[in-house]
Amino acid sequence: MLATAAHPVFTHVMAALVRLDRDLRVDFVRGLSLWVIFVNHTPGNVIGYLTPRNYTLADASEAFVLLAGYAAGLAYGGVMDRQGWFFAASRVLGRVFTLYVAHIFLLVVFTAQVGLSAARLDAAAYLDELHLDPFATDPYRALFEALLLRYQPSFLNILPMYIAVLAMFAVAMPLIRRPWLMLALSATLWLAARVFDITLPSWRGEDWFFNPLAWQLLFFIGCALGYRPPGGQPLSLPWRRWAGVLCGVVLGCGAVMTVLMYAQWEFTQARLPAFAPFIAAVDKASLHPTRLMTILALTYLIANLVPKDAAWLRGRFAWPFNLMGQQSLPVFCAGIALSFLGRVALEESDGWAMQVAVNVLGTAALVGLALLTAWYGAEKRNGGRRGATAGLPTVTATDRG
């Protein structure tokens, strides 16, 4: 009886907090990517075998960066057109500061979490595996270098790349009005970073796990797709059957390469010796061309085959992912922290009961955080009036970033 009474209230609140005046395809994919990041960062999680990284050369990281660029182009491009580059750039830099604070907070929480677990469970390997051992040997220098983003433990390398790329966007924003020139310059930088192995400096000589000078290309592609020029037409690639077939071929070849790389590597080395070096060279750090082509093929197919007003995007199944996508920063940070807790739990017991508990409770926590953050944002925008969740919250341009 209680569950029956609570269900309409829950669905009403969730439906009210999902902003429907956005492209829900973007929010859904972004939310799904954040959930996949949580799953993939939890070693031993059986659901991880079903996530896209096992069947495509691109994974949630590529989707996250591309859609972050789309949101930036949509939001800050409009601000620039209305209020000028300086004002828009200041808003972008404000977002950069928010991301930096979130990264440092997550660093402190994650380091304390792993360090405490390593001490209590006598699992010093945690520190080495997650590249947190400098905090044991040289903690003050490690903290200083982490503040400079020159030291990035495992799982804490996406936000630094995002921070660097968004800072580049603040400077290059006027180029968004000439998208093909912007993309040409961005592609040139990507190519130079790959060919000449150019990256940003790091503390111990290790390259950035995500090289911002390469990954900026994906971000700026998203910017070009998201920008809406006043009185003009946004950049788009209309549906062509031959292009759709080509995208299918790209995804099919990528699936074969992924299986050969991760599931059948010994077979690849033994039976395909000429092809193995090419597969082994498919790197993530500098955004290998095959990974770039894969995410662009997926984007083209989704953009053209999934209608913007598809009914299922406004259905109950999509609401949790839409909410997570619309509240991406807190959900991402929580997902990283929860993934380590899930790992510790699965190392204690990897039976089906624990698998279900980790995934159900972890997902519920992420959705609950998205609900809370969305509710707080609605209350803030509505001046704290009672019943702010009774109607659809108003969305401003800066909410989309």
Automatic annotation (TrEMBL):
For this UniProt entry, which segments traverse the membrane? 63-80, 92-112, 154-173, 180-196, 208-227, 239-265, 285-307, 328-346, 352-376
Q: Which one Pfam family would you cite for this protein?
A: OpgC_C
Which domain of life does this protein belong to? Bacteria
Q: Note the InterPro entries from the entry.
A: UCP028704_OpgC (IPR014550)
- Give UniProt keywords alphabetically: Membrane, Transmembrane, Transmembrane helix
Listed name of the protein: Membrane protein
- Origin organism is Neoroseomonas lacus
